[in-house]
Design brief:
heterodimer; A: alpha+beta; 5 strands; about 15% strand; B: 19 helices
Chain lengths: ~160, ~700
């Protein structure tokens, strides 16, 4: 059934009229052309589609568009602030924690959510908190190091 | 690729509007073009067949803006050549790295290329690119000499500026030199000696990384065209199923859906991919699926019992006459493994009257171009295929069924059509790494020297199958048969080698155990190849622990290989929970001699990534099937390596610049299976013969061990 969903997307008020049972993933990718959010498995198993809803990581392939009514959604495109990269993005670059880059947006947003909940996460806690995000190229250790570096930066006040 | 700059898009326009071929373009546009070839013999045939200039298959342009563009059919899928090739070029040309644009996998702009496979980009393409860079530099120096009135010997170049050695104020930059020129040269100049290198050999971060952390990097599925449709194709339940009946009535009732039923192709298309997905589920279809008894339980007997022709891969000496103090007879088994890149196969086709535009996530863009041309009955030159970033390939992103389907659907509907595989389709149509058996027989003498090596390889592929040890008598056989597999199989990161090295290096440990020697001493005793000895010793030094005769209970393993002349020695330490059968890989050291190293950071990333990915095929990855039916549909039943499994990988790069650069993308992973199997066997005290070593298989092995005791 078509419904009008109003929500905040990357800091801006938006409105979309669409079948309310569609997933957030495809509405973001097609209606808003925010293609940084990736399809990887369609069942919430890989984490490539991770976005933030009210600052918490969700699997957008498992999230109905109607559930974000009046909420705030942030995608990878909305993480940097006026062209200045978020400490997590900077840390991924610093540690060269990327290969093909397909899982990267989901990794960064899941890490963001993890650090919102636990700003002093240890490497072990980061590993556990990231465990449901998959990277086939095998950059895991560098990603953990990048997130750990970002915790220090964010504590210094570099967070958004 | 992303790095296409303005001059690249202008080039597209010129080629399209003026219908000129590349050779003419180079002759008529400004700048300096250097043509070069990497596979002269192959290119000649391809070039002639395709009506293209036949004597080059890549080129660079020094534009009037001073930027340097390299046009190559190679693609970027995470392996990092977008950075390392640019380093090789910048070095020879003496330009800053950020002055170089890599234009990759564009069939209109880039000359023909056979595909990005086999860890060959740096090894085969790199040297040709270097010669082209050197040629360009020589041309520019000559021009500068004329312009400045200074002999070439009196000039120096830095960051694209040529200046007088004695008077730096007398200078001219590449942009000024290229302005208004039409120079075309073939690459013949001498390249720099490695001791002069300043950019090549330096640890450089990926040049594409900023776009990849901001979401700006475009993959094929991210391309949007006005009016485009997303297609879902009706899929059979099994690879050899035959369609009996189909009813699309309900699917047609979905608002906005287009249903196509033509020549066995049944598809639904919609402006929204998820609505197309719903509509395909409404198509009712019945199939006949032939019964089969070939499955995970029976596959190894099937492989061993096929009627086959045996061919020698290599042989030497006299096996029958070899000394036999102790002999060994073991079999090693590998199940089917999927590539499982996180980006599924994706293609977008737009059939226009004069040109067919295609975007595709393929390691073989020119093969896809031909496939589309065949499907639409046009010439390949009428198909302009672009390769955006690829979300992982591993040998699996070539040319699958979706290519022809998207081409046909775009033609039928008159609209741009995208097909992106679902995860289930990705598993179903994967050209799996083949299941395989290796029958190993060997012998040693009283001193622990290998006296004969008699290996019979049942369908893994032949790469890395030659013994690395100094053995007086050996024979390696390879079997050939038809109808080996009930579905497609193909190259998987380090094709053949993963399977072969698992058998070869497991069997080496079997002999070491029987000889009463630790696995390091046994290998060193049987190795005479000094390069391999050096690599193995470097790995052992880094590991820093003492090896004991196996099984030692410590959980240490070693595996060595020669992968297309890149030498690898890997050492792992594991812990096995004997209650659950769960293996934890605690630490891995991997030493690699790949000759001259172009980008040590990129090389480390490939080694770490390879080992990490390899843990999956070693411990958990196995396609479940019966006949042509694939039961594995998603990551819940196909566990790949995840964060909590990933060990610390210490990559040791052997400095060997005297040897030309070899490959790096695949070699490390080919030791993963053997090194972890050896470490697990060392830990539990019984030999593991089958990959993956699932908890169930490990618990079974422990039971067998306990019965024997």
């Amino acid at each position: 059934m078509n419904e009008t969903i109003n929500f905040t997307l990357n800091g801006k008020s938006v409105s979309v009229s669409t079948d309310s049972s569609r997933s957030l993933l495809w509405v973001l990718r097609t209606e808003f052309e925010l293609t940084g959010t990736k399809y990887g498995c369609g069942e919430g198993l890989c984490g490539s589609c991770t976005v933030l809803v009210n600052e918490r990581a969700v699997r957008s392939c498992q999230t109905l568009i109607k559930s974000v009514q009046s909420k705030s959604v942030i995608t990878i495109e909305g993480l940097s602030n006026n062209g200045s990269l978020h400490p997590l993005q900077k840390a991924f670059i610093e540690h060269n924690a990327v290969q093909c880059g397909f899982c990267t947006p989901g990794m960064i947003l899941n890490a963001y959510s993890l650090l919102m909940e636990n700003p002093t996460a240890t490497e072990q806690e980061i590993t556990e908190g990231m465990d449901d995000n998959l990277c086939r190229c095998g950059s895991y250790k560098r990603i953990v190091q990048a997130i750990f570096t970002a915790t220090e930066e964010m504590r210094k006040g570099g967070a958004r | 690729m992303k790095n296409q700059n303005i001059s690249a898009s202008l080039l597209v326009e010129l080629l399209q509007v003026q219908k000129i071929d590349r050779r003419q373009f180079i002759q008529t546009s400004g700048g300096i073009a250097i043509l070069f070839s990497l596979y002269p013999t192959i290119t000649v045939g391809q070039g002639n067949r395709r009506g293209y200039p036949s004597n080059f298959n890549a080129y660079l342009l020094i534009g009037a803006d001073g930027r340097v563009s390299c046009y190559t059919g190679k693609i970027e899928m995470g392996q990092g050549i977008i950075t390392s090739l640019a380093q090789m070029l910048a070095e020879e040309l003496d330009v800053a790295l950020d002055q170089v644009d890599m234009v990759m996998g564009d069939t209109l702009l880039c000359p023909w290329d056979g595909g990005t496979t086999g860890s060959r980009s740096t090894k085969v393409f790199g040297p040709a690119l270097r010669r082209a860079g050197a040629e360009a530099r020589a041309v520019l120096l000559q021009l500068a000499s004329e312009k400045l009135g200074i002999p070439v010997e009196g000039l120096m170049v830095r960051n694209g500026v040529v200046s007088s050695k004695s008077d730096p104020d007398k200078s001219v930059n590449y942009a000024e030199l290229a302005q208004g020129r039409r120079i075309e040269r073939n690459a013949e100049s001498k390249i720099k000696h490695f001791s002069e290198h300043k950019v090549s050999g330096k640890a450089i971060r990926r040049s594409d990384i900023r776009d990849k952390v901001t979401g700006a990097a475009k993959f094929t599925g991210d391309i949007r065209l006005p009016g485009m449709l997303y297609a879902r194709v009706l899929r059979p339940p099994s690879h050899n199923a035959k369609l009996k009946s189909v009813d699309t009535t309900t699917a047609k009732s979905v608002p906005g859906v287009t249903v196509v039923e033509q020549n066995g192709l049944i598809a639904v298309l919609h402006e929204q991919p998820d609505i197309a997905e719903r509509a395909i589920d409404l198509v009712k279809a019945e199939y006949d699926s032939p019964a089969s008894e070939l499955n995970n339980e029976t596959v190894f007997d099937h492989l061993l019992n096929l009627e086959s022709e045996k061919r020698p891969v290599t042989e030497k000496g006299d096996i029958a006459g070899a000394k036999r103090f102790k002999t060994f007879d073991e079999k090693y088994y590998n199940h089917y493994v999927a590539h499982a890149p996180i980006e599924t196969h994706t293609v977008l086709v737009d059939v226009k009257s004069d040109m067919i535009d295609v975007w595709c996530s393929s390691q073989t863009p020119f093969r896809v171009q031909e496939k589309i041309a065949d499907a639409l009955n046009v010439k390949p030159e009428q198909v302009h295929l672009r390769t955006p970033f690829i979300g992982g390939g591993f040998g699996g992103k070539k040319s699958s069924t979706e290519i022809t389907e998207a081409a046909q659907l775009a033609k039928i509907t008159g609209k741009p059509v995208q097909i992106a595989f679902t995860r289930k389709e990705e598993f179903f149509y994967d050209a799996f790494r083949p299941a395989a058996v290796i029958h190993a027989r060997s012998g040693i003498d009283e001193k622990g020297r290998i006296t004969f090596w008699d290996f019979d390889h049942y369908y893994p592929g032949n790469r890395s199958a030659e013994p690395i040890y100094d053995i007086p008598n050996y024979r390696v056989l390879s079997n050939r048969a038809s109808d080996v597999h009930p579905f497609d199989t193909g190259a998987w990161r380090g094709p053949g080698s993963n399977t072969n090295v698992f058998a070869m290096e497991s069997h080496t440990d079997v002999m070491a155990w029987a000889a009463g020697m630790d696995p390091l001493s046994f290998r060193l005793k049987n190795l005479t190849d000094e390069r391999m000895v050096r690599v193995l010793k470097a790995a052992a030094d880094q590991f820093g622990k003492t090896f004991f005769k196996g099984p030692s209970g410590k959980g240490y393993g070693i595996a060595c290989t020669d992968y297309l002349n890149t030498y690898v020695a890997t050492i792992a330490e594991v812990k096995v929970d004997e209650r659950t059968g769960i293996v934890t890989v605690k630490r891995v050291v991997s030493a690699q001699d790949m000759g001259e190293i172009i980008n040590p950071l990129g090389a480390k990333l490939q080694i770490e990534g390879g080992i990490t990915m390899g843990i999956g095929y070693c411990l958990s990855e196995e396609i479940e099937f019966n006949g042509g039916e694939i039961f594995t549909e998603n990551f819940d039943t196909y566990p790949i390596t995840r964060f909590s499994w990933a060990p610390v990988v210490e990559a040791v790069l052997i400095d060997n610049p005297e040897l030309a650069p070899q490959g790096c993308g695949e070699p490390a992973i080919t030791t993963s299976g053997a090194v972890i199997a050896n470490a697990v066997s060392d830990a539990i005290g019984i030999r593991m013969h089958t990959l993956p070593m699932t908890p169930e298989r490990i618990l079974n092995a422990i039971k067998t061990r306990d019965k024997q005791e």
